[in-house]
TrEMBL record:
Protein keywords: Coiled coil
Phylogenetic placement of the source organism: Bacteria, Fusobacteriati, Fusobacteriota, Fusobacteriia, Fusobacteriales
Coiled coil: 93-160, 185-233
Protein's name in the database: ABC transporter permease
Species annotation: Propionigenium maris DSM 9537
Record's GO cellular component terms: cell envelope
Cited InterPro entries: UPF0194_transport (IPR050465)
Chief site of localization: other
Cellular compartments annotated: Cell envelope
The keyword Coiled coil appears for this protein: yes
Amino acid sequence: MNKKYLAIAILAVGLLGGAGIKAVNNRGVKDVRLATVARENLEESVRLEGVVAPKNMYNLYTEVPLVVDEVVVNLGQEVKAGDVLVKFSQGSVESVENDIRGLELDLRNAKLELDDLESGSMKLDLDSRKLETERMENQMKSLRRKELVVKNELANLTEEAEVKMRLFSAEGISSIEANDVITRKARKEMEYEDIKTEVIILQERMSLSVMGYERLKRELAIQKNMIESRIEKYQLSLNQMHSRFITELKAPVDGVVSALEVENGTPVTPSKRVMTIVTHDDFVVKADVPASIVETLRVGMDADIVSRDNYEDKIYSGKVDKIARVIKTVDRGNYEDKVVEVELSLDSAEGLKPGSPVDIDILGNRMEMITVVDAFSVLEENGRNYVYTIEEGRARKQEVSIGVKTFSKYQVLDLQEGTEIVVNPFAIRNGDKTRVMR
């Protein structure tokens, strides 16, 4: 059981047994004892149990699948940066080397595909379509110029025919001259219509050619992007395997082997942790603080951390460094506890070991001559605080505002010094008849 709760429970039992609530008498009146609200100096202090934890942990993995040939170190062993920790089997090393050669072959083939795509039949067909489109564009320009000339010639012949027809009607020219100009006009109209038809046909051919060219261009671009993506993928994988491929696993820092997950013959994958290294004298202290009192803590508060290894108390200085924002539920066996994780930094961690239990005293502000009551005299319900006073022989439940809290004392903000309250509010109810025991 948490030392805090154990202490409070013992104190409460003592008060109940000796100075607290007695059994109800035969007339239904409950015997109670009272405590007086007094002014005292109060220093905020929270006592907790914690555990030493490494500040920096190095979880070691392999970047490629391998098989452990020999584990060189033991759990708890001290190592230096660069020390060999694990050796891998020659067979698994050769397997990785084969994978590298396979990737190199895939990369070379993909590059050949790209070269063929950029200079092969599809590229030639694309260039041919482009040239054909350009040729038709030039032909269209020539037809447009010819169309314009013929159109002007037709306009001139039409005007000439109209003039000569008027002369012919006035018998100013012969029918032969009139028929000649009419015939030339008709031929020019036919020529003009033929050119317009050629323009339409050429436009359709150009449209089809452009569509074919764009389609082939897109197909070529898609294939090129796919091949380039494969090349990039092969190159990246190859670079990673070259840079990450190892035949031995070495320590990245000086430290201690705190976890060992493999043994000789164990296959390992990139997702399987091989071991964990924690650094020397680089520890923090972690504690689960009851959610009901965590609001009394703040980052930067001083703390004394007491280690009792080898039955010798040693006190370390520290500070509250982190207070989690999330409340977690801890299974205590027969009940669930709501706690918040708090992390404390240490001025020095010399002599501490990861996993060692410690006691923590978090020191708060000293409050001079404030009104306080014993913590067990306050009833907490649904986030509100209550005490019982006695009025005309009956218990009266009264809500109070609480300021500073310690494990044994609460500051009350709205009770006057000298106010008498029931020692233990859990054994009576509002309106109960009472008899004060002096």
